[in-house]
Amino acid sequence: MIREAYDVRDFQITAGPAWLDTDRFDIRAKAKEGVSTRQMKTLLQALLADRFQLRLHRETKELPVYTLSVAKNGAKFREATADDQHTTAAGPGEITDHGVAIPIFIKQLSGLVDRAVVDQTGLKGSYDLNLQWTREQDTGPSLFTALEEQLGLKLSGGKGPVEILVIDHVVRVPIEN
Predict the structure, then answer these.
(1) Pairing assessment for the beta strands 87-91 and 94-101 based on DSSP bridges
(2) In 10 A of CB 24, how many CB atoms?
């Protein structure tokens, strides 16, 4: 729930008690109809602060990251037309995006590689991307290979600044409303 409320990945949450990774809770809450995704995240943050007494702060730390750049032979995908709405279809070893901005694609990649991905592509538009990979090297390309061969993009490892959430306080037994 913290990941969803603050739009972060597991590697960006630190200093929490061990039970955060194992305990599960049934939370029932209703929002008014028409609430935007951004408003929903704010409501979820308030719920966590109220019921679990969650207090946290943000810091920036040097962590392992990947940089995404255009490979030496150039990008191998087309720019979306102005009429294209963003749609995503994803499954095991496959992502198909239509009308996707690079920052959104980078969020998808970050979830797959469990590291922050830094944009060094210089690409500013929206694009149609189709990517297929496998985890088993002998049955198909790895994610890294597929990115370069199918999209003309390259992931390179390094270190860089990553915003993290530091949990200052949280209670294990939620407060009833």
Answers:
(1) antiparallel
(2) 4
Beta strands in the chain (DSSP E): 13-14, 55-70, 78-79, 87-91, 94-101, 116-119, 126-132, 153-169
Distance set, CA 10 to CA 18, 34, 92, 134 (Å): 13, 29, 20, 23
Contacts (Cβ under 8 Å, ≥6 apart) of 139: none
Question: How many CA atoms, within 13 angstroms, populate the side-chain half-sphere of residue 105?
Answer: 29
**Tens digits of residue pLDDT in 12-22:** 999 999 999 89
Q: Which two tokens stand for residue 49?
A: 């602060």
Strand partners, 131: 95
Q: What is the CA radius of gyration of the chain?
A: 19
Which helix (H) or strand (E) segment holds residue 4: the answer is helix 2-6
* pLDDT tens, position by position, 90-115: 998 999 999 999 999 999 999 899 89
pTM: 0.80
- Whether the CB-CB separation of 128 and 98 falls below 8 Å is answered with yes
| Alpha carbon distance, N-terminus to C-terminus of the chain | 18
